[in-house]
Design a protein that fits this description.
single chain, four-stranded antiparallel sheet
């Protein structure tokens, strides 16, 4: 049931992280604040296609 998703930085649009989520229970896109090594700070990362 759990699918792998790719998280991209909202500032620089680079794909930095992967995560898993249950698509049946969580229907909206995942958004987490994580460290971006390209921006060198904590930025919001959002699920991409």
């Amino acid at each position: 049931m759990r699918d792998n998703v790719i998280l991209a930085c909202q500032e620089c649009k680079r794909r930095n992280y992967t995560a898993t989520r249950n698509k049946k229970k969580q229907t909206e896109r995942l958004e987490v604040k994580k460290y971006c090594k390209f921006c060198r700070r904590h930025t919001p990362h959002r699920e991409t296609k």
